[in-house]
Specification:
single chain, 148 residues, mainly alpha, 9 helices, 0% strand, elongated
């Protein structure tokens, strides 16, 4: 399969991370959980969610997965703040991208190479998917895990 279509999507994801670095309100719960996991680790008494659990019960599985992927950022590179957010988004974006690479491979085998090319091009050139492939909104992480 042609790798340049997949690289184009990866470039689009990374550009969205750097051009729009700040968060949306839908991301706040998962992003705070990722922050607590990376910064406080197993010191659960320091986690913000024990004091402010939120109005709706939610799972931490997506946030724990994202924090596990980005674990080297604070440990080895000693980054925090926006750099840590960027590291988490890059980790989630790469996982989403890898899922899309697998999806394109299945489309290529099932329907053909032209259809897989079209999927790669259309996905990379639109706003919605490349932007949300690196975001921690609950619906986004659920969709990314379904593709994997």
């Amino acid at each position: 399969m042609e790798l340049h279509w997949d690289i184009l999507l990866l470039v689009a994801i990374v550009l969205h991370i750097y051009l729009a670095p700040f968060t949306k309100v839908e991301e706040s719960f998962n992003l705070q959980a990722v922050h607590d996991a990376l910064v406080h680790g197993t010191d659960l008494a320091s986690w913000d969610h024990l004091q402010f659990p939120g109005a709706v019960p939610r799972t931490f599985l997506g946030a724990l997965f994202a924090s596990a992927l980005a674990w080297p950022a604070p440990g080895f590179f000693h980054c925090s703040g926006l750099a840590l957010l960027t590291a988490v988004r890059l980790a989630v974006g790469i996982c989403s991208w890898a899922s899309h690479v697998r999806l394109r491979a299945v489309v290529s085998r099932t329907w053909g190479v032209p259809e897989a090319r079209a999927l790669g091009l259309l996905t990379a050139l639109q706003f919605h998917l490349p932007f949300y492939m690196s975001r921690l909104a609950s619906t986004t992480t659920a969709n990314n895990n379904n593709v994997v």
